[in-house]
Design a protein that fits this description.
192 residues; mainly alpha; two-stranded antiparallel sheet; 8 helices; globular
Length: 192
């Protein structure tokens, strides 16, 4: 499959992502994808639509939608882990911007984390990089900026936070194996 997203990508969602730098159902373009979206800015809409059509065709039209956005958000909230240290870390570091999509949009799109593809991925690397380094150069101003927590969180705090986020926002997904090692590896790899 092209993506582990909880909701199947549509041609319109690919177009929105490539043109605006974010998708209502999947999240914001960050890291190398933000550069791609910015570089595609001058491209005609017809070209972006052609790319979106091609990407949608790679999913094999028979892939069912795993759930609707509101249902996924509600399911994630219902199955929230018990309060603890990781939840307090999330609320103190992340909760000012990341809700279930119900807050204002002053700091960006505020797309619900229960829809964020990174939390459903086979590997935690992209999520780790985003938390460590934030989003300093978003694909578009509407996508929003995010501070990095590299100098603020220890590997242990980051590992606990990511475990909690996966459990809270991606219910039914197995915990990532060797997460502590992945956090340490990505911290070193992305240090420059």
């Amino acid at each position: 499959a092209l993506s582990r997203a909880p909701i199947a990508w549509t041609e319109d969602e690919f177009y929105q992502y490539l043109r605006q730098g974010h998708s209502r159902q999947h999240g914001a373009a960050a890291g190398p994808m933000a550069s791609v979206v910015r570089a595609m800015g001058p491209a005609p809409d017809a070209d972006i639509r052609s790319i979106a059509h091609y990407l949608a065709s790679l999913q094999g039209g028979e892939r069912p939608v795993k759930g609707q956005a509101k249902d996924l958000i509600a399911l994630a909230a219902e199955g929230a882990p018990l309060p603890g240290r990781a939840q307090r870390q999330f609320e103190g570091s992340c909760g000012g911007c990341h809700y279930d999509g119900s807050s204002n949009h002053l700091l960006g799109q505020n797309l619900p984390l229960a829809l964020n593809t990174n939390l459903y991925s086979d590997r935690p690397d992209n999520l780790i990089r985003i938390i460590l380094d934030g989003i300093q150069a978003p694909a578009s101003v509407d996508s929003g900026f995010m501070p990095g927590f590299r100098e603020i969180m220890t590997d242990r705090q980051l590992t606990e936070l990511i475990q909690w986020m996966r459990q809270r926002f991606a219910p039914g997904q197995h915990p990532w194996e060797n997460l502590a090692q992945s956090v340490a590896r990505v911290r070193v790899e992305s240090a420059n």
